[in-house]
Write a structure and sequence with these properties.
Elements: E1 9-12, E2 20-25, H1 26-60, H2 68-81, E3 92-93, E4 96-97, H3 100-124, E5 132-137
Antiparallel strand pairs: 1-2, 2-5, 3-4
Length: about 140
């Protein structure tokens, strides 16, 4: 899970000259960027996981491949599952197929998503020292 967005700007009323002092927390700004990027990555991989999961369920239920919805899911998910075909045996019974290779693909893609988000965090994370920049505005 990504952390809650943080305020990266704080305005202070100022002195008798009517100036407003603005403090920008660059670390909070960076954490907000990381949150947005990792959120997008998790969304995209989540859509992929749901699509492959629907393929697993449809194959398990022996869904009609001539049905337009089932055909659409099979075509889309096949692109992402094909590297795993033939990896292990696929148990079948009365037209129903338990696609172990699709489940393996889901696990691999989950690990890839986790690895990418951790890498982004490690590369982009702000330092422990907060950097605050003060700007005087008239």
């Amino acid at each position: 899970m990504s952390p809650e967005p943080r305020d990266d700007r704080v305005e202070y009323e100022s002195d008798e000259y009517g100036e407003t002092e603005v403090a920008e927390d660059t670390a909070a700004h960076r954490e907000n960027e990381i949150s947005r990027i990792t959120g997008i990555i998790w969304l995209l991989f989540g859509i992929l996981e749901v699509t492959i999961g629907m393929r697993v369920v449809l194959k398990l239920l022996a869904a009609n491949p001539d049905n337009s919805f089932a055909s659409f899911i099979y075509r889309i998910a096949r692109v992402f599952v094909w590297p795993f075909f033939g990896l292990v045996a696929e148990p079948t019974s009365n037209g129903s197929v338990f696609e172990v290779s699709s489940i393996i693909a889901m696990i691999v893609y989950l690990l890839i998503a986790w690895g990418i988000t951790r890498l982004i965090y490690l590369v982009m994370k702000p330092s422990r020292v907060r950097q605050v920049r003060r700007v005087n505005r008239h």
